[in-house]
Request: fold
Amino acid sequence: MNVDALLQQIDPDGTSDLRADGRWAVWPNLDVRKMAATMIEHKVHFVTATAVLGADDTVRLLYHWSVDSQLITMETTVLEGRIPTISDLLPAADWVEREIRDYYGVEFTGRTDTPPLVLRAGDPPGLFSRTADLGHEANPAQTARAQVADVRGDDSDGAPAAEQVRADVEGEDAR
Amino acid sequence: MSLNVPLGPFHPALEEPYKIEVACEGERITDATITIGFNFRGIEWLAERKNYTQDIALLERVCGICSNVHSMMFCRAVEKIAGLEVPPRGAYIRVIMCELERMHSHLLWAGIACHIIGFETLFMTIFALREQVQDALESISGNRVNYGMNRPGGVNRDIGDPAAVLAVAKATSAAMTEQMIPLITKNRGIRSRCVGVGVLTPEDAYAFAAVGPVARASGVSIDLRKTDPYEAYDQFEFDVPVTTNGDVFDRVVVRALEIVESCRILEQAIESLPPGPVAGELFPHVPAGEAAIHQEAPRGEVFYYMESDGSDHPTRVRVRTPTFANMPSVRQMVIGQTLSDLGLIQASIDPCYSCTDR
Reply:
């Protein structure tokens, strides 16, 4: 398959680089839905998407595709924390989008529902973004639950928040 | 009568937590909802906070079955960013480790599948066979699970006794060809539980981005060892088994045939093992950069993305495991099937929830 023709179909003005790890197209204004529709039309395999947190809290979103087993990465920037979903076009993107929302709080517009994937129901999204400045001594799983207590209005730190979380969890278990 | 049946988070067939809730009309499944995350350890998060050497050990623990693949993927991503070359002997040893790991993973799955089907004799026979492969892995690395073999630029250990590994490959190939494959493919009990059960169509395999033996059993002819060779895979002759029925039986057959192909690769790799060093410099500097790579794990394509800012730790590590890609397609496989086949169907993708949750 001609990768240049494929990319031209998505954006006639777009350019790409051939790197050691495959083709990269860095397009800040990437039309992700047109990208998905074009890839589906040509039966290009979807690998996954990666969100990368930048220095100024911007999120780069990398869509990885496999054309005849050669990787193509299409990169764009998430503006104001929102980007259109492609999960209605390609079911394989469903879990990927839910996971990115769990980690970086990116909202995929056009979805009817975005339940957490690896976090628990009720946990606020954006775990990795919120904890980006924490060191390795922090526990990401505990951090997720502690944030729930904070969101519910318990603004004290340490034990009270933990007790609140424990009480909430026990309450849920009892139900 | 309509029923909702929740199964899990303790798995009815495998000892790992996840939940599937199925809606049934009588015995027939009409819908399914899958819930994961019970094993979430935040490994991607932790990897950004540990140095490259610590991360090799951390990433090796993404999975308890294909642990070698994950440390190798991490090291290959470092090699891409740093422009490191693996010496030929190191590349061959990586192939040998990968194929031994594929054999033990497939044999483990085949044994458990027989256990679920209720064929305990074959379960015991297959596990005895797998034990020889485990012994070979232990003789090379000193470990049965996390092998600690990989480092950026090569491997940590040479193979002390290649003849012993060759003997295991030949013995496994003979046992599979003469005993196991005829038994698995002709036994009426296995066929009655597997043929026509849990079908994944080629269209659904594409839409849900299924990978590995699950996709190849549905006619998707992609095996990165052949279609995008890495390390020394372009040096070896082997076939990629592909079938088209997409049912549980085809997934059994594809994996069984792949064990034989792994033995072929192992025999060639051991017999043509090149001389020379197995690795380069011990602690190479990793410059700023990023890399996206993929390779064929036992369960299918595994994908890593890594970003570095030139410091002693990566700034982003992304892990997409094969089970993460394959799990959503279970919904398509179970709809229309009977509740009693649910355990076998979900096990037929060879799921690894610790991989999926990371």
Observations:
- Chain A has six helices and seven strands.
- Residues 154-162 of chain A have pLDDT under 50 and may be disordered.
- The longest strand of chain A covers residues 45-53.
- Residues 35 and 69 of chain A are 18 Å apart (CA to CA).
